[in-house]
Write a structure and sequence with these properties.
Elements lengths: L2 E7 L6 H14 L3 E6 L2 E5 L17 E7 L4 E7 L1 H19 L8 H38 L1
Antiparallel strand pairs: 1-5, 2-3, 3-4, 4-5
């Protein structure tokens, strides 16, 4: 619920166990929290309530899981955007209530459109940025993990 998932391939010469630990380090490098390796997966927390710049790739995603599948040679990811969704729903709901209390209020469609655009922008920019980050981490891990 309120998650986005996908997968990226990794080179057959890469040891999945080394890739898993490297991915955990990559998440740590972008200030991920509560990073844990369990079995063939790395779980982490990100989100917007951390001391990071607004360009941090984990801001749109409150939590995530990266799973290394050694058989299909894929890294699967699942990212939750529930935190962004709830925050902006509450924020824009408050804005709507405040607007409706004023005599010359703008139509309530305006905050609804703003709410949609903010969430859409977080996902439209956040998902490709995360995929690019993950792809680069997999490419960098390949020569490291072969050693």
């Amino acid at each position: 619920m309120l998650t986005i998932s996908g997968s990226l391939p990794f080179d057959p010469s890469v040891d999945p166990a080394h890739l898993l630990s490297y991915l955990a380090e990559a998440i740590r490098s972008v200030k991920g929290r509560d990073i844990a390796i369990s079995g063939d997966a790395v779980s982490f927390r990100g989100g917007m309530f951390r001391l990071v710049t607004n360009r941090n790739i984990l801001i749109p995603f409150g939590r995530g899981t990266l799973t290394v599948d050694p058989l299909s040679r894929q890294v699967r990811y699942e990212l939750s955007f529930a935190q962004v969704f709830v925050f902006h729903t509450v924020f824009w709901g408050f804005v709507t209530v405040m607007m409706l209390r004023t005599p010359q209020a703008a139509p309530p469609i305006i905050p609804l459109v703003a709410w949609f655009l903010v969430i859409a922008a977080n996902l439209l920019f956040g998902v490709p940025r995360f995929r690019s980050f993950l792809r680069k981490a997999i490419e960098i891990a390949a020569p490291v993990a072969v050693r």
